[in-house]
Amino acid sequence: MKTLKIGVIGCGTISGRHLESVVALEEAELVAVCDNKPDRAQAAAEKYHSKAYTDYKEMFEKEQLDAVHICLPHYLHVPVAMDAMRAGLHVISEKPMSIRYEDAVAAVELADELGVQYGVIFQCRYNTPSMLVKQRILDGRLGAVKCGRTTLTWYRPDDYYDASDWKGTWDKEGGGVMIDQAIHSLDLANWMIDSTPIEVQSSLHNRNHRCMIVEDTGEGLIKYENGVLLSFFAMNNYLINEPIEIRLLCENGKATFSYTHAKIEYDDGTTEEVDNHPQKLVTYSSGKEYWGSQHAVQIQQFYRSILGLETLEISGREALKIQKIICDIYDNGSAELKKN
């Protein structure tokens, strides 16, 4: 089996999940890393035994790469992905795809035109609880979703935003709690519902963060073509990161799940529960606990799609579904915030 030559662009906090996955997976070899901060690029290169660059285009020219990982601020995801595609490289990007839906569409179309694989990280789909609920919907034991809700109550203090030169901004992050934190739980619910949204209602507010201009609170309702209603609430003014909760009312019962646990209560009185038992492809040395350990599972699946062994599961085209919802949430709910 060919060993893919990999570059990682962006050596900030999330990059550890990617870098450690690359070096652990037999399908890949980490060749180079890139960051516009030289000390950060050099530190990552030394730690992971690769070459350091501060210009990703120079990295493309000098290294014989097969694929790149994009671990950059949100507004750079699509421009850098498209540059990589034009260089003949496969791309896997951190979420979100973009801060604008039309840009995400353009990237998907370019990937199709050039025949390269384009993946987007939504690793929570590979959590054991998520996979159990999805399977029970598909095999008919739960049946189709009839109604749902998602709840996220986390904590992001002012210094979380003060320490960043891009978080908490419209032009670089694209928003706040919805695009950065709640996107995963909304993606999971949308994946379970598996229908086309026909209306997105939203209300966004900055309740408690005067150091930034984007929302720290969002709520709304998504109406689907198949009649399902999905309510959502997210905020980062709680003093701890509570487990997210997704509740789904289905044809034959109800499911309640988070990143770590799922409980299904069937209408016949039986129940089914599972804790998260992720595939241990990598034991990560750092990072937030709720990120889980499934980056490596999704990254390996991306590599195997490049090698022609599997079909890419979370492609750019698949990720457009949640990208459209997130962008509609902002289009419909951020007008008042953007006036201030």
Written account of the structure:
The longest helix is centred in the last third of the chain and has 18 residues, at 316-333. The model has no long low-confidence stretch (mean pLDDT 96). 35% of the residues lie in helices and 24% in strands. Strand 2, helix 2 (38-48) and strand 3 form a beta-alpha-beta unit. The protein contains eleven helices and 14 strands. Helix 4 packs parallel to helix 5 and helix 8 packs across helix 10. It starts with a strand and ends with a helix. The chain is globular, with a radius of gyration of 20 Å. The relative contact order is 0.16. The strands form two sheets. Strands 8-9-10-7-11-12-13-14 form an eight-stranded mixed β-sheet. It has a six-stranded parallel β-sheet with strand order 3-2-1-4-5-6, with helices on both faces. The chain has 340 residues and is an alpha/beta fold.
Task: Provide a quick synopsis of the model.
The protein has 340 residues and is of the alpha/beta class. Helices cover 35% and strands 24% of the residues. The protein has helices spanning 15-24, 38-48, 56-62, 77-86, 101-114, 128-138, 158-162, 177-193, 295-306, 316-333, 335-339; strands at residues 4-9, 28-34, 51-53, 67-70, 90-93, 118-120, 145-153, 197-205, 217-224, 229-235, 245-250, 253-257, 261-266, 271-275.
List key phrases describing it.
about 350 residues, alpha/beta, eight-stranded mixed sheet, six-stranded parallel sheet, 11 helices, 14 strands, globular
